[in-house]
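Lab notebook: predicted structure, single chain.

Context: the supervisor wants predicted structures on file for every construct in the current expression panel, including those that have not yet been purified. This is the next one on the list. No modifications to the sequence; it matches the entry in the shared construct table.
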Amino acid sequence: MKILFDLFPLVVFFGAFRLAKAFPDWTTAIVAASLGAIGGAPEERAELSAVIVATLSAIAATFVQIGYLLARRHPVKPTVWISAALVVIFGGLTVWLHNAWFIKWKPSILYWIFTLILVGGRWIWKRNFLGMLLSTELELPARIWDQLLYAWAGFFLLLGGANLAVAYGATTEVWVNFKTFGLLGLTVLFSVLSGLYMARYLPPAGQPSSDA
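Prediction complete. Output recorded below exactly as produced.
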C-alpha cells in the first residue's frame, strides 16, 4: 500500500491517459472547450489532448497525495516535494502551452536532480546522503555506501537519458507505457540488485560492522 501511495500520481497519469485515449472525440472536445482549441491533424489533437488530461490528473493527484500526508501529520519526503514541484511546473507548462514535451522532460529532470544531489552531497558536503537515509536500517562499511551512492547516481543519470531516448524516438503512447512500466521496472530491478550486493556486506545479526 505504501508503494502504491508513493506511485499514486504516476498511476493516475497512466489511467487518465488510457481513458482519454479510449474516447478521443470527447477528450478533444473537452480540452478545446476548457483550455482552447489545439491545432494539428485529428490524431495529433487527440493524443495531445490525452496528455493534457493525464497531466492535469497527475497534478491533482499530487496535491491530494501531499494534502493527505500533511493532514495526517506524516512527514513528506524531500523526493516527494521535488517531484511535486516538477509536476506542477512542467505539467503546468504542458497544459498552458499545449506542448507535451514539458511533461516528457519532467522524469529526466527529476532523475538528474537526484544524481546531482547524491554526487554533490558527496563531493561538496562530504556526506553520503544514501547512507544517511538508510543507515538507521542497514549497517554497512563506509566504502560500500560510497560504491552504492555512485552506482545509484549513475543509474539515475542513465534513466534520464533513457526517458528522453524513448520520448524522442517513439510515439507518445509508447512513452507513457515506458514511463509507467519501463522506468519503474528498471528501478525495481536495480533495487533488487543493490539489495543483493548489500547483503554480501551486512554483518551477522548482533555483530556490528568494523568500519561502518
